Amino acid sequence: MTVDMSQTAETLRLRRLGWAGVEVRLGGTHLLIDPLRNVAELEPVLGPPKRRLPAVETPEGTHVVITHTHPDHYDRALLAQMTDPGTVGCYSAVVSELADDGIAAVPQELGQSRGIGPLTVTPVTSLDWRGTDSLQVAWVVEGAGARIIHCGDTMWHGNWWQIARDHGPFDLAFVPVNGVIAQFEGYEANVPVTMTPEQAVEAAGALGADAVCAIHYELFDNPPVYTEQPDIVRRFRRAADTRGITAHVVGDGEVVPLPARTGTDA
């Protein structure tokens, strides 16, 4: 099947929200991934945000999926306002945690696809630094001949290639880049607990992504409890240039362009 992104009647429209949030629109379907509006719960550990977050709009019919239940990705107060049945989705392993918060979420197993209007969403493997105490996934989103992946705040792991075989290639990968050193709640090691800029680009390369967009950086920094990598943007751009991958560094609330490509998909 030949796909010409410039000629499709409807195209996937993407916008980076605050922190790790991403908005996906296709026709009248509105999907948010890890939207964040309320930050008070984060400040004791991450410190106050360096800037005001862009508005998160949740009109009737909005859908949300979350990668995991860290409060910088799982905004309980925001999701609790979304009372329409079936509008919140999560990994099946954390559905009971959302239920405890009064949020009736649609659970999905790893690799299990679900339709949301013209979109298809599928959770795939991700790796959290707190181990099985904090399970997380990445989300593959497909629609209008385009395919993206949102990687939450994963560490580097060895499942990239299997994800690429099962679900790739990808037009665009959203990747965490702050390579943070975290020292709280008994988790104290001088090892990045999210991907560094260089690791993030290598992950995009392994996934077969044409373009990569940086997320999860330069909003919180609270040394020594939560310490980001230095010189993130320059390192990210340099790594992507070396890899031959288009790098997107966009501000909060800005549009993220999909690569215009004409090709043949099996």
Features:
alpha/beta, Metallo-beta-lactamase, Chain A, 7-stranded mixed beta sheet, 17% helix, 30% strand, disordered C terminus
Write the layout of secondary structure elements.
Layout: E1 2-4, E2 13-16, E3 22-26, E4 29-33, H1 43-46, E5 63-65, H2 76-80, E6 88-91, H3 95-100, E7 106-108, E8 114-116, E9 119-125, E10 137-143, E11 146-150, H4 160-167, E12 170-176, E13 181-184, E14 187-188, H5 197-207, E15 209-215, E16 226-227, H6 232-243, E17 246-248, E18 255-256, E19 262-264
Parallel strand pairs: 4-5, 5-6, 6-7, 11-12, 12-15, 15-17
Antiparallel strand pairs: 1-19, 2-3, 2-18, 3-4, 8-9, 9-10, 10-11, 13-14, 13-16
Helix pairs in contact: 4-5, 5-6
Q: Let me know the CATH homologous superfamily.
A: Ribonuclease Z/Hydroxyacylglutathione hydrolase-like
Top CATH class: Alpha Beta
Mean pLDDT: 91
CATH architecture term: 4-Layer Sandwich
Number of helices: 6
Return the structural class. Answer: alpha/beta
What integer value in Å does the Rg equal?
A: 17 Å
> In total, how many beta strands?
19
Along the chain, the helix and strand elements come as EEEEHEHEHEEEEEHEEEHEEHEEE
Specify the helix fraction band: 10-25%
Rough outline: globular
The percent range for strand residues is 25-35%
Named CATH topology: Metallo-beta-lactamase, Chain A
Q: Compute the separation of the termini in Å.
A: 7 Å
Number of domains: 1
In terms of per-residue confidence, which ranges show pLDDT below 50 for 5 or more consecutive residues? 1-8, 262-266
For the biggest sheet, the summary is: 7 strands, mixed
Strand order of the largest sheet: 7-6-5-4-3-2-18
